[in-house]
Specification:
about 55% strand, 36 strands, about 350 residues, single chain, four-stranded antiparallel sheet, mainly beta
C-alpha cells in the first residue's frame, strides 16, 4: 500500500504532502481531489486528469472525463462515448459505449444501442445489452431495470430477483436497499424483504448505506438506525445523526450534539454545537464557535480554537486557522501550515 498523501493549498494552487508534512507534489494545480486507489484527479487544460502518487499525469490520451480506478480500469469519456483506460493511461477498452459504469467483480455495466449489458475487462460482452438501466455487481448480483421495474441478475445474466421495485442499489454483503415510491427498505439475496420500504428517501443522502453494520434511517423527520438483519437497532429519536465510526455515531438532541453507541445509549452527552465522525480515537466537535477534538470519554484532547475541522485520516486532520489550512497530528502538533 502506498504512503498516504494529504492535499495542501498555497496561493490558490493545490499539491500534496506526506504524513511528515514534507511536500511530495508541489502546489501547482487549480483543482485537485484526494487520492483514491492510488490516483488523484487534477485540473489540467480545463479537464480533470488522473495523477499517480509520484505526481505523474496520465496524458497519453485526453478525455472529457475520467472516473475513478476500480479493479485497475477507469471509465473515460470522449465527446459522448465511453471506454476505459488502465493505470498507465493506455486505452484498454475502445471508446464505443453510450454510457458506462465502474468495474466490480470483473464486470462493468455499459450501454449500447440504448440498452445496458455487462462487459469484461477486454470490452467483450459477458451479458448482452437488454436492460433499460443497470448498476454494478456486488456479491454476485447486479441491479437491472426492465420496463419500469428493477430487479437483480446473476453473473450469467439470469434473473435472480424478479423486477418489482421502483429502484434498487447494489448489494452490501448480504443485503441491498430497494425503493418503493418515496421510501426504502432492505432485502436479502433471496429477494425476501428484511425491512418493508418505510424509511424516508432523502435526495442527495446516502440512503441505506451501512457503516459498521448500521445504516441511518429517517422517519417523520427523526433519525435512527437499522442493522443489516433489518432490525430497528436504534428507534428514530434524534433530530440528526451521522454514521457510526469506531463504535460511536454523532447525534443531535435539543439542538446539541453528542455521541451514541450501537445500543442507542448516550456515550458522550450532547453539549456541542456540531460534531463529526470519530477517527483515530478522536472526534471533531464545535464549542463556543470553534472546533477542536475530544477523546472517547468526551475530554478535550485538542482545544477548540479552529474555524473548521475535518475528521482524522491516517493520523492527520485538516483544520482551518485564521483563514489558512493547517494539518495537525493526534497530539495537536502542527505538521504543516499554509503560508
Amino acid at each position: 500500500m502506498s504512503t498516504p498523501l494529504f492535499k495542501i493549498r498555497a496561493q490558490g494552487r493545490y499539491g500534496f504532502i506526506n504524513r511528515q508534512g514534507e511536500v511530495v507534489i508541489e502546489p501547482q494545480y487549480l483543482e485537485a481531489e484526494d487520492f483514491y486507489h492510488g490516483f488523484s484527479r487534477v485540473r489540467f487544460n480545463e479537464k480533470l486528469v488522473p495523477m499517480d502518487v509520484m505526481g505523474r499525469l496520465l496524458l497519453k490520451h485526453l478525455f472529457n472525463f475520467v472516473g475513478f480506478f476500480e479493479e485497475g480500469l477507469a471509465r473515460a469519456q470522449l465527446v459522448n462515448r465511453w471506454g476505459y483506460i488502465d493505470v498507465r493511461g493506455n486505452l484498454a477498452v475502445d471508446i464505443q459505449y453510450e454510457d458506462a459504469g465502474d468495474f466490480c467483480e470483473g464486470l462493468a455495466p455499459a450501454r449500447k444501442n440504448n440498452r445496458f449489458g455487462f462487459i469484461r475487462p477486454d470490452g467483450s460482452w459477458k451479458i448482452r445489452p437488454q436492460f433499460e438501466a443497470a448498476r454494478e455487481f456486488a456479491a454476485g448480483l447486479a441491479p437491472v431495470q426492465l420496463v419500469e421495474k428493477w430487479g437483480y441478475i446473476d453473473e450469467d445474466g439470469e434473473m435472480a430477483i424478479a423486477p418489482q421495485f421502483d429502484a434498487c442499489q447494489s448489494f452490501q454483503g448480504e443485503v441491498a436497499v430497494v425503493q418503493q415510491g418515496l421510501f426504502w427498505g432492505l432485502i436479502n439475496r433471496e429477494g425476501e424483504l428484511l425491512a418493508e420500504p418505510q424509511f424516508e428517501f432523502q435526495e442527495g443522502y446516502a440512503n441505506g448505506e451501512f457503516s459498521e453494520g448500521m445504516a441511518i434511517i429517517v422517519q417523520d423527520g427523526a433519525y435512527g438506525f437499522i442493522s443489516q438483519d433489518g432490525a430497528l437497532a436504534i428507534p428514530p429519536a434524534f433530530s440528526f445523526a451521522g454514521d457510526f465510526s469506531e463504535g460511536l455515531a454523532p447525534a443531535e438532541q435539543h439542538g446539541r450534539f453528542g455521541y451514541i453507541d450501537k445500543s442507542g445509549a448516550i456515550s458522550i452527552p450532547p453539549r456541542f454545537e456540531d460534531a463529526g465522525l470519530l477517527a483515530n480515537g478522536l472526534a471533531p466537535v464545535k464549542a463556543n464557535g470553534h472546533w477542536g477534538f475530544i477523546g472517547l470519554s468526551g475530554e478535550w484532547r485538542i482545544p477548540p480554537k479552529y474555524e473548521s475541522a475535518l475528521p482524522f485520516r491516517d493520523g492527520l486532520a485538516l483544520v482551518g486557522h485564521q483563514g489558512r489550512w493547517r494539518y495537525v497530528d493526534t497530539d495537536g502538533e502542527v505538521v504543516w501550515e499554509e503560508q
